[in-house]
Amino acid sequence: MRNHRSPDPSGPRPDPPRVAWRRQMRERVLAEARALAAESGWDRVRVADLALRAEVSRPSIYKEFGDRAGIGRALVLRETEEFLTRLAAVLDEHRDDLAAALRAAVAHALAEAGGNPFIGAVLTAARGGTDALLPFLTSRPEPVFTSAWQLLAQWLGTVAPGVAGERRSEAADLAVRLTISHMLLPSPLTADAPERVARATCAVLGVPPAR
User: Fold this and answer.
1) What residue segments make up the domains of the chain, in order of their start?
2) What is the pTM of this model?
3) How many angstroms separate the Cα of 42 from the Cα of each of 46, 60, 101, 168?
4) Which residues bind DNA (predicted)?
5) CA dihedral angle for residue 79, residue 70, residue 65, residue 29, rounded to 10 degrees
6) At what angle do helices 117-127 and 165-184 cross, to 10 degrees?
């Protein structure tokens, strides 16, 4: 006689069909929004185009995201989470050398700016003063700037616990601002940005930037 195992009540339960469909729809819309923004800039992204490419009705998109700005905010937040996950991994690879970790993190951020088609499209358009996604990347409290600052400040707390919290906060703020400035306005000095940002950050921390 065959034994039938009852489902494990402690195991994860599948999402209800409506919840699963909504998650899939959201991901499709954001994936197409990212592709369109990378192709021609966020200013040219239209909800009608997203609906057509994602095979979703416009009312469904508006219900999920509120408006076009809501799509942009959700897209930037998703990109930010993925970027910060990778950045945290880079920092942790060099936990035994604070200056080396900072150099690697800045180099990673600049490489993303140059190699990530979505970020590249946003930054390129921003230099021409046209891209409406830029505020989400820099000045508004929820996305990249504050999230990166919090990540770095917390990481500094684990690798430099002897430094005062206020100094760690100032150092994280400085490092993020300088890195973003190089992403937005690259110059001949940008090639040396990882070293100079690391040196300035270590100076604020009062830690020798030994190589």
Assistant:
1) 74-205
2) 0.74
3) 9, 20, 33, 35
4) 46-65
5) -40
6) 80
